[in-house]
Amino acid sequence: MGRLSLGDRSPGGIMSPAFSFQGLTLGYDRTPAVRDLRAEIAEGSLTAIVGPNGAGKSTLLKGVTGILKPLGGRVCFGSADRSGIGYLPQHSEIDRSFPISVVDLVAMGLWREIGPFGRVDGARRARVAETIAAVGLTGLEARPIATLSGGQMQRTLFARLLVQDAKVVLLDEPFAAVDSGTLVYLLKIIDRWHVERRTVLAVLHDHDTVRAHFPDTLMLARDLVAHGPTPEVLTAENQFRARQMCEACAETPHTCIRGAA
Predict the structure, then answer these.
(1) Which is nearest to 136 in space by CA: 123, 146, 122, 149?
(2) E-assigned strands of the chain?
(3) Do residues 21 and 137 share a domain?
(4) How far apart are CA 63 and CA 58, in angstroms?
(5) What is the pTM of this model?
(6) 124, 149, 166 - which closes a domain
């Protein structure tokens, strides 16, 4: 099933994509995890990426950031570009043992603005402090990240994204291992990004959260299952089809034969 809706439109009715997937194939050792994906992500849209385990959801975010090079096709940027991407990886990809404090981790969101050796002046320090307060972590600025709970760590990472002030935000399972209070905080931040017309894509598993907070959904099962308004995508029929597609992929080896783009 193809794209049902391209999401937001400009005042003149012309669709304005932040970026698009043009026959995008991504994978590891030339085995595809995402195959021939064709879709557009509208500027300012709030999109959940869903699908069974092994569907290629996290792989797709890595393809957008450029961490993973395509095996075929490409990500074509329209109003967005990679320099304006903020990316939150999964918990398992973050080294919590690294000796860094909350305030220093949040200040890393300034790197694109000031460079790795730039000075965090008074105005920027105030900005970092305001952001830490906005996620409810005032008083924990000096605490090493290794001592944080899962919810506190996720709030810290969201604060870093707020400081980065990115036009495109990619979130990989942002609500994993967080308490209900933190979930409310993080959803408010995401809602704020949407109001500010930032483009947000989030890999999610809880379909109730998707239905309540994400207007658009892209469902993957290595191949595209459906993409469009959430009520039209999150149907029992599409979910059953996605599970069947992933099971078929697991049983049958696939090899990409196209050259890298």
Answers:
(1) 149
(2) 17-28, 31-42, 46-50, 72-77, 85-88, 168-172, 199-203, 216-221, 223-229
(3) no
(4) 9
(5) 0.87
(6) 166
